[in-house]
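Hi everyone,

Forwarding the result from last night's run.
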Amino acid sequence: MSDLTMEGRTVLVTGASDGIGAETAKALAARGATVHVTGRSADKLRPIAAAMGTEPLVADFSRLDDVRRLAEQVGERVESLDLLINNAGGTFSPSRATHDGHEPNFQINHLAPYLLTRLLQPELAAADESLVINTSSIANLMGRVALDDLDYERRRAFEFPAYGTGKLMNILFTRGITQRWAEDGVVSAAVHPGPVGSSFGRDAFCVGLLYRSPLKSFATISVPDGAAPLIALAERGADPEINGRYFSRFTIDGKESKQASDQALIDGLWDRSAALVGLRVDRVVE
């Protein structure tokens, strides 16, 4: 275990009911941080929050009103936020639209974290220097963002490519943050934690087959190993060297889709996401 301290830092970890989210939350709390945790399962989240010494923040990212309420609750608890880890996500059958009518891989992996992060901008800015970590994936290489069809109304959506597109959006969003919130001292990085043997894929058929089979032990890494890259980035804090970068585990500038550095997509995804959740558009600081 690292001996780096997180004393005095306030953290929010999403997707913290189990898996690498829970593992990361525990590790940062052990280093002295005040850690708030959110997830969709109240039963799973309750003991995690109790170990943090905080109350659980239950929110289902398939419901954008849950995300709005979550942001309000966080704002009531903290004056500033040093670290936001957007870890909630997974693979989902595209045929099961969310409560808000969106394709689930798009909403749960991108649109909901986008909304939460935007709503928590005042708390992130109040920390003077803060860090947003977005859990992405090597699956971003299979993604393809179409700004005029984010919800697959014109294209047929297939489960894993749709998931990969959501993870590609995590990288685009990371770069949107770095370009718009620099004056607020907000740094952002995206990270592929590795193929973690957790409950990932439980809501999907294709990926779920692997994760529920004996092959899981051969094709995946442990939860602590998967959490380690997130913890390492969290310890670095608002380091300018990591700003806007995509990590493949501990390797900076991992393999990414060519779309990940497309400025028109970075700007277009930010603007269209803002319109979908009813927020103003932030312009890039020149």
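Residues 10-276 form a domain with the Rossmann fold fold (CATH 3.40.50.720).

Cheers,
N.
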